[in-house]
Design goal:
The protein is mostly beta strands. Helices cover 10% and strands 34% of the residues. Strand 12 and strand 13 form a beta hairpin.
C-alpha cells in the first residue's frame, strides 16, 4: 500500500511538471486572475501579458535590469516624477540607484513614530493612511516589467484615483496578485493645485508577507511593495480681505470730514458682476474689510457698492485670486471728494450793492486771509482753540473778486490743495475768511466768516 501511494505521488508531480512545460511552450506561464483596465494597458494583446496569481512560479519571470526600467510607462513616469523623487530623497533614498528602495523606505518608516489616522491638513508633505485593494497585477515579457492597478480606496482615502499604472518598489521580489491581502496604504502629498482642488500624492502599499530585504538565488524573498502616483480632489476654500487707503492722505489724515469706515464691496464670479457669491466686505475705521465667509479657490471680481464718508464711489472692477487655506489681499485706494471752487469770495460796494465801486473808490487790492480747518465747525474754529491746517492770503482783482488760484495768491501763503487732476480744490472741512486789508476808498470789514466745505459744495461768502 505504501509503495502504491508513493507511485501515485510521483505521477501527480510528473503530471504537474508536464502541465507547467505545456504552459511554457504555449507562451503562458500563469493563468490571469483579473484583467487590468483597458486604459491602463494599451496596444497589448493577451498573449503579450502574464497575469499574476497566488500560484505564480516567480522563478520563471525574467525581469529587465533595474537600470533598464522604462519609467515612462508608469503613472507620471514612475519615480521619474518630481514629486515622487523629492519625497524619496527627503527620506534619504536615491530610488534610481537603490532597486530595493521599497524595503529601505519600509525600514525607515518602521522606525518613525506615526499616527495611524487621517491628517487634517492636505499640505505638501503630509501623510495620509488608509486602505485599498490590488485589482490587477501583470507582467509584460517583452518589456521585463510588472504593472499594478489599485481600487476601492477607503478608510481615509476615499475618492483617491490612480494616475496610470503602479510599479514595484522592490525590483526582484514577487509581485502580489489581484486580491492579495493589503496590510497598509500610505499616501504622501507631493503637490497641490488649489485652483482645481487636485491633491497629488505618492502611494506606498505594503502587502501581506512583504519582502524584508532577504534574498535567494532568484532575488528578494517575499512580495513587492507597490508604489503609484495618485490624486484626490478636495473642496479647498479660502477667504479675502480689502485694505483701503486714501489716494491723498495729506488731505484726509486726521480730517473728520473723511472716514475709511463703512465702505461696502460685493464679490462676484464673473467680470460683469452678475453672478454673485452672496458674500461681501465692509471696511472698518482702519480701512480693512474682511470677507464675511469663505469661497472655493478661484478667480473672483470685486466692486465698491457704497463709498465711505468723504470719498467718491470707485467704479473699478478688481480681480482677485483666492487660494485654498489662504487669505487673499486686495489693496485699493479711494479718491477724497474735494470742492473745485470757482470764485472763492467777492467784495461788493455797500452803496451800489454791486461789485462796482462808488465814486473814486476801487474794489481792487483788498486782501483776504483764508484759513482751512479739517472738520466741520459752525463758528470760528480758532476761537475754540483749533489750529488751521493751512493759511492763504488772496488779493481781489478790479472786479472785487478773487479765486482759489495761484494767480491771486500773495506771499507768505501756504501751498494750495490740489486734486488728483492737479487742479486747485478744497478738501472737505471748514474755512474762515477775513478781510485783512481794504482797497482804496473803503473801510476794512473785520467780520470773520465761517464756511463749511461739504460733499455738496458751498458758494463763497460775499463780503461787504
Amino acid at each position: 500500500m505504501k509503495k502504491k501511494k508513493r507511485v501515485q505521488e510521483v505521477l501527480i508531480v510528473l503530471i504537474a511538471f508536464v502541465m507547467l512545460v505545456l504552459f511554457v511552450a504555449a507562451g503562458r506561464i500563469m493563468v490571469y486572475a483579473k484583467e487590468p483596465n483597458e486604459d491602463t494597458v494599451k496596444n497589448k494583446s493577451t498573449e503579450d501579458i502574464y497575469y499574476f496569481t497566488e500560484d505564480t512560479d516567480y522563478s520563471k519571470i525574467e525581469r529587465c535590469e533595474y537600470s533598464e526600467i522604462d519609467w515612462t510607462k508608469y503613472g507620471n513616469n514612475g519615480i521619474k516624477d518630481e514629486g515622487t523623487k523629492e519625497y524619496l530623497e527627503s527620506m534619504g533614498i536615491d530610488a534610481e540607484k537603490d532597486e530595493t528602495y521599497g524595503v529601505t523606505l519600509a525600514n525607515k518608516l518602521a522606525s518613525m513614530p506615526m499616527t495611524m489616522g487621517i491628517a487634517e491638513d492636505w499640505a505638501v508633505g503630509t501623510v495620509h493612511w488608509g486602505m485599498c485593494d490590488i485589482t490587477s497585477s501583470w507582467f509584460v515579457p517583452s518589456e521585463g516589467q510588472s504593472y499594478f492597478t489599485l481600487g476601492n480606496f477607503r478608510d481615509g482615502l476615499e475618492g483617491v484615483e490612480m494616475i496610470g499604472a503602479g510599479w514595484c518598489a522592490d525590483h526582484t521580489a514577487a509581485e502580489p496578485a489581484a486580491g492579495h491581502q493589503v496590510i497598509s496604504v500610505m499616501c504622501t502629498v507631493t503637490s497641490v493645485d488649489p485652483s482645481t482642488g487636485w491633491i497629488y500624492m505618492n502611494l506606498y502599499l505594503t502587502p501581506y508577507d512583504a519582502t524584508t530585504g532577504q534574498s535567494n538565488q532568484w532575488g528578494l524573498i517575499g512580495y513587492q511593495h507597490i508604489s503609484a502616483n495618485v490624486r484626490v480632489r478636495k473642496p479647498f476654500n479660502g477667504t479675502a480681505k480689502i485694505i483701503k487707503k486714501s489716494s491723498k492722505s495729506e488731505v484726509t489724515l486726521n480730517n473728520s470730514g473723511y472716514s475709511l469706515e463703512g465702505a461696502h464691496y460685493g464679490i462676484w464670479k464673473n467680470r460683469e458682476c452678475t453672478d454673485g457669491t452672496g458674500l461681501s466686505f465692509t471696511t472698518n475705521a482702519e480701512g480693512v474689510g474682511k470677507l464675511n465667509g469663505t469661497l472655493p479657490a478661484g478667480t473672483y471680481y470685486i466692486k465698491e457698492l457704497t463709498a465711505p464718508t468723504g470719498y467718491a464711489l470707485d467704479p473699478t472692477i478688481y480681480t482677485i485670486n483666492i487660494q485654498a487655506n489662504e487669505t487673499a489681499t486686495l489693496n485699493v485706494s479711494d479718491t477724497p471728494i474735494m470742492n473745485p471752487l470757482g470764485i472763492l469770495l467777492g467784495k461788493v460796494d455797500a452803496a451800489t450793492n454791486q461789485n462796482k465801486p462808488a465814486g473814486s473808490g476801487t474794489l481792487e487790492g483788498a486782501l483776504f486771509t483764508v484759513k482751512y480747518y479739517d472738520g466741520y465747525y459752525d463758528s470760528d474754529p480758532a476761537a475754540q482753540g483749533k489750529n488751521a491746517k493751512k493759511t492763504w492770503i488772496f488779493r481781489t482783482n478790479s472786479e472785487g473778486v478773487c479765486y482759489y488760484d495761484n494767480s491771486y495768491l500773495q506771499g507768505g501763503s501756504d501751498e494750495l490743495y490740489l486734486n488728483l487732476d492737479g487742479k486747485a480744490a478744497l478738501p472737505l472741512g471748514t474755512v474762515t475768511i477775513q478781510e485783512t486789508k481794504s482797497p482804496s476808498g473803503y473801510q476794512k470789514n473785520d467780520t470773520i466768516y465761517t464756511v463749511k466745505i461739504t460733499e455738496d459744495g458751498k458758494d463763497g461768502a460775499d463780503l461787504q
